[in-house]
UniProtKB/TrEMBL annotation:
Protein name: Hormone-sensitive lipase
Annotated region described as Disordered, given as residue ranges: 514-609, 629-663
Alpha/beta hydrolase fold-3 domain segment(s): 370-520, 736-797
InterPro entries linked: AB_hydrolase_3, AB_hydrolase_fold, HSL_N
Residues annotated as domain Hormone-sensitive lipase N-terminal: 56-355
Basic and acidic residues composition bias: residue spans: 572-584, 640-650
PANTHER family recorded: HORMONE-SENSITIVE LIPASE, TRIACYLGLYCEROL LIPASE
Residue ranges, compositional bias (Polar residues): 523-539, 585-601
Pfam families (UniProt xref): Abhydrolase_3 (PF07859), HSL_N (PF06350)
């Protein structure tokens, strides 16, 4: 009997060793990296039968079959779930392969050219291939560790099932791609006939978005970005707790920690946020990049610069000269929010001769200047939050950068931001000396929403006959602000930074905030602003009016809307200097998140501990808002303090170049200060109370019990919102306006565009916008180039200090801008007074 048992054990050891050796050789033969599949290569040799990538799909099937055979005799619950999970993966592979193979073969037809492979079809093929690589990695981990004593069956059950759900959802997306292929001829990424997203989604089953934000979150991105994206997703879910938890911030942070250890709970929360949260939540979350802590990061980690200041442009008429030598008067923007000052940020690695407020400098003015617009979905962020890469650009380009803090939607929707960018450009044309340049070379640069604005501004410049910039650099630009479905736009269904709901709400807030009220008026004004014959300044163009003399104020319309007599009177007062306004901060850190407050009574006394918290909360106050069901809920909103010495870092200052210092408005009244102190005190009291109660709960001797269903419902009331199709609320009209969507500009204007360099990423929902716009320019004979980077997300420039590949992408931006500037090597920095 002993001999029999010995032989059995020997046979078992021999079999196990043989299997491990075989699997080791198999693994070496079919070695794949953890990096995602490259979209630029996923369609290479697609004409082969079968293509090289077919081996990867077969390798996953073989590995899954191996594991399924191993776990089939396992009678435990997790063992049977593993068996079923691997068999389900095999079924999904068989379903997905013919769908992705067809898209793989036709995807190269939609590239700009052979040197620039990139379009939404390629991107989706690479996403599916990345999912296969992810599944192959998981399956091999199971193969190598399933015999171990501490093999975690429960963990791998969830991982394998999540991978199966992911592949099934991608199969549904592939069905949608086949529908899109039938809607447009080869080469066109947008349908030639009107088709809505609702029509597209009705062609196949509903896409399960939860699998994209759970255990598989970030599988399609570079490994260096996955941790960052996971952290942001956890912060988003946790922040929603604070946003919807009646001001109990400490308790929200406590419960928000669950999203770190529970991927399924995090996925559910993020999908519900995307479908249900308002644009105000998007603004509030992105506003975190404007916090005092984040504002200190660029000065600590980025390149040092000698000049970093805010300049306030007062709302006064500006006289500029057209390319034909005519003088025109540019009126300051008045639409939506009236006359306000405009803040622009000047960043320069050196102090130069003539720079305002910089004393004397021996360094001559730069021949070039970069005119920059920041991103943020038209609703958030500012030039300050984009300093992470602007400082690096200023140091490497050695030219001044002027970044515009335009007004933000929904308080200031289209065309306010475009007006302000155009107005700032006209101001720059008259103030080259003050910003340290001769203005010989002007290059426009912008990312995301900012890229849309500089492209729209270029359309306006050309239609007005003003001096055009020498080049345009655009990063991941949304150039078609509309809801026309395209393959790349389906990527937002799985994007951690730009989910479908976020993108739709931002575009709606900017392009059509009150469609029912504005359609008629905007339609009339847009038709009057047709660009087919707008090659010279005329009275009806909105921005400009030909002025034979420099006296008087133009009486023409201002930016798509009529200027009222009161506006003209106010403009005249500005020009004469008899009346002045205070220039408002138009960034996310102030005006765009303000609401009307009511007095709360006598300010309660504050003790020292509350005073410390009040000092910490000086920039933030608790206010109320309305959720999607009409309930009053508390939210965190910024303090509208106007003291520049508190708002800017020690190394930063502000100045007003034109006109006298503005007067302080009513927001600095004593009553307003009392109300702010009252809310700060209430917020401090609430936080201190929450902290005390939480500490007592932890240290007390009471039995720790699980929260009741009612408790969970109270603190996760966002999840209680009625589930609905994410496209239900996005049925509204967007004007086909070339200022809003530069893609719609006519060929006559596009043919006059300066050289254009576009940089985008394969996983960007706006990729198809960039490719189709570049195709238009190339067809007209324009100088245009496009770079499409692998494995990076939309908005990667904001992570240039955190990931190597993002930093390399930022360096490529610098190289492209240098090519557009086409300047000789600038002199080495000589000033030592750097920030």
């Amino acid at each position: 009997m002993f001999m029999s048992r010995y032989l059995q054990m020997r046979h078992k050891w021999f079999t196990r060793g043989f299997r491990l050796v075989t699997e080791s050789l198999y693994t070496k033969k079919m070695s794949y990296t953890e990096s995602p599949a490259k979209a630029s290569l996923c369609c290479e040799d697609a004409g082969a039968h079968p293509p090289p990538t077919f081996a990867m799909y077969e390798a996953l099937k073989d590995s899954c079959q191996n594991n399924a055979t191993f776990f089939q005799p396992d009678d435990s619950e997790n063992g049977q779930r593993l068996y079923q999970g691997f068999m389900t993966l095999i079924d999904h592979i068989d379903t997905v392969w013919p769908l992705v193979d067809h898209v793989r073969r036709v995807a190269p037809l939609y590239d700009l050219d052979e040197k620039s492979p990139g379009n939404g079809y390629r991107s989706f093929v690479s996403v599916v291939d990345s999912c296969i690589l992810h599944g192959l990695k998981l399956s091999r981990q199971v193969c190598t560790s399933r015999d171990a004593l501490l093999f975690r069956k429960g963990y791998f059950v969830k991982e394998i099932e999540s991978c199966g759900q992911l592949l099934a959802s991608l199969g549904t997306c592939l069905h949608h791609l086949h529908t899109l292929l039938s809607w447009a001829p080869p080469g066109d990424l947008f349908p030639t006939e009107p088709h809505s997203p609702e029509e597209l989604f009705s062609q196949a089953d509903t896409i399960n978005q939860y699998c994209f934000y759970g255990r598989c979150l970030g599988f399609q991105f570079l490994p260096s970005m996955r941790g960052i994206l996971k952290g942001i997703s956890i912060c988003m879910a946790g922040f929603s707790e604070a946003y919807y938890s009646h001001g109990n911030l400490i308790s929200s942070v406590w419960t928000g920690g669950q999203y770190l250890i529970d991927p399924e709970m995090r996925a559910r929360r993020i999908v519900n946020i995307s479908q249900s949260a308002s644009v105000e939540f998007c603004k509030a979350f992105w506003f975190l990049a404007e916090s005092e802590i984040m504002k200190r990061v660029p000065s600590l980690m980025s390149s040092t610069v000698a000049v970093n200041k805010l300049i306030t442009i007062p709302p006064e008429p500006i006289t500029v000269t057209t390319t034909e030598g005519k003088e025109v008067t540019v009126l300051p923007p008045t639409v939506h929010i009236g006359l306000q000052g405009l803040n622009v940020r000047l960043i320069s690695v050196n102090k130069r001769m003539g720079m305002t407020g910089e004393g004397t400098s021996t360094l001559p003015p730069s021949e070039g200047v970069v005119f920059h617009c920041h991103g943020g979905g038209f609703v958030a962020q500012s030039s300050k939050s984009h300093e992470t890469y602007l400082r690096e650009w200023a140091a490497k380009l050695n030219v001044p950068i002027l970044s515009i803090d335009y007004s933000l939607a929904p308080q200031a929707p289209f065309p306010r931001a475009l007006e302000e960018v155009f107005y700032a450009y006209c101001w720059m044309l008259n103030h080259f000396k003050e910003i340290g340049t001769t203005g010989k070379k002007i290059v426009f640069a912008g990312d995301s929403a900012g890229a849309n604005l500089i492209a729209g501004c270029t359309v306006k410049i050309l239609s007005m006959g003003l001096r055009r910039p020498e080049g345009l650099f655009m990063a991941y630009a949304p150039l078609l602000v509309s809801f026309i479905p395209s393959p790349a736009r389906l990527l937002c269904l799985m994007d951690p930074l730009l989910p479908f709901g976020f993108m739709m709400r931002c575009l709606k807030a900017y392009a059509s905030p009150n469609a029912s009220k504005r359609d008629d008026k905007q339609g009339t004004n847009n038709s009057q602003n047709a660009l087919s014959n707008a090659t010279t300044p005329v009275d009806s163009n909105g921005f400009l009016k030909v002025s034979p003399s420099q006296e008087g104020i133009s009486e023409g319309p201002s930016s798509f809307e009529e200027v009222s007599p009161s506006d003209l009177a106010e403009l005249q007062a500005h020009k004469s200097g008899s009346e002045r306004r205070k220039s408002s901060d138009t960034t996310i850190s102030a005006a765009s998140l303000q609401s009307e407050h009511t007095a709360t009574g006598v300010t309660p006394p504050e003790d020292k501990s509350q005073q410390y918290v009040s000092d910490f909360l000086e920039r933030y106050v608790l206010d109320s808002d309305t959720d999607s069901e009409g309930r009053r809920i508390p939210v965190i909103k910024p303090n509208r303090a106007r003291d520049e010495s508190h708002k800017e870092a020690e190394s930063e200052n502000s100045s007003t170049l034109v006109g006298e210092p503005p007067l302080v408005d009513d927001f600095e009244s004593k009553e307003h200060k009392k109300r702010i102190k009252t809310r700060i005190s209430e917020a401090a009291t609430g936080i201190m109370g929450a902290m005390s109660s939480r500490l007592a709960y932890i240290t007390g001797s009471n039995t720790i019990t699980k929260p009741t269903q009612e408790d969970l419902a109270v603190r996760t009331n966002l999840d209680a919102l009625i589930a609905r199709s994410p496209s239900d609320e996005f049925i509204f009209s967007v004007p086909r306006n070339p200022y809003l969507s530069p893609y719609w500009a006519d060929d006559q204007l596009l043919n006059r565009f300066p050289p254009v360099r576009i940089l985008t990423v394969h996983l960007d929902p706006c990729l198809d916008d960039c490719v189709m716009f570049a195709k238009k320019l190339k067809r007209l004979g324009n100088v245009v180039g496009i770079d499409v980077l692998e494995g990076l997300p939309h908005g990667f420039l904001n992570f240039s200090l955190m990931a190597k590949e993002a930093n390399e992408g930022s360096n490529l931006c610098v190289e492209r801008i240098k090519q557009l500037l086409d300047l000789e090597a600038a002199p080495a920095p000589t000033d030592t007074n750097h920030l």
